[in-house]
Amino acid sequence: MPHRLTPSAMYASLHSYLDELVESGVEGLPLADLELKALAPQALDGADGACQEGTPQTLAEIRTQLGDCQRCDLAATRTKLVFGAGNPQARLMFVGEAPGGDEDRRGEPFVGEAGAILNRIIGAMGLKREQVYICSVLKCRLPANRHPHRDEIERCVPFLTQQIRVIGPELIVALGTIAAQTLLQSKEPISQLRGQFHSYHGIPVMPTFHPSFLLHHHENKGLFWEVWDDMVQVLTRLNLPVPEKKRK
Ligand code: URA
Questions:
Q1: Spacing, Cα 240 to ligand 1 middle (Å)
Q2: Is there an atom of ligand 1 within 6 Å of 99 CB?
Q3: Is 140's C-beta closer than 6 angstroms to any atom of ligand 1?
Q4: What's the structural domain count of the chain?
Q5: Edge-to-edge order in the sheet of strand 92-96
Q6: Same domain (yes/no): 89, 202
Q7: How far is the CA of 97 from the centre of ligand 1 (A)?
Q8: What CATH number is associated with residue 123?
Q9: In this predicted model, what pLDDT tens digit does every residue of 35-75 receive, in sequence order?
């Protein structure tokens, strides 16, 4: 009888085989292409078999598939999973890194200090939070705000992929290094990526500084203006009016 693998098991097996080859010094394999496919909107399976029940058609169905997610170690330390919030038909989507302490307690994205800055950015753009969709690459808090591990991103990203596919935004703002590098399959720092449009499977992506970074460097007003310049490009691309701001 032929040995049949599910698509997700096949993907996991192929991925680990390619990882082994690369680690043993083999060069020139199309690993980047493979990773890109894991991020493609039509990809249904996480490496662990996430989203196997079928293609979700709504955000509620994606949330149901996530369930009481135990796919990585972050489940043990989270209080609430933070799925995302906002307009399910948003033209504009903001993608952050991972929930912080306030978000973990409330189960809502960007409701802490970084959220207050994101609200200011959205307000300055002449928009309301309810008009856009906000979520993060990781749906669970990172203990002690450490950097995410690669396997945590790989297990969570299929759900972000599905959120993007279901919402179908015209434009994505990637907030900070992790969101930008994950969506764009890049290793470039955010300072290099920001300020120009990239593409996530045809959807324009504007990387910009994470609100937490602005918070930690609040004395550097130049950073705020750089973010504003990025948002001006976003508004212009969406054919939305650009509110005038005076630089002192
Ligand atoms: N930072 C993020 O990247 N996401 C949140 O939801 C909150 C803070």
A1: 25
A2: yes
A3: no
A4: 2
A5: 85-86, 133-136, 92-96, 171-175, 203-208, 198-200
A6: yes
A7: 6
A8: 3.40.470.10
A9: 444 455 544 334 334 445 579 999 999 999 999 999 999 99
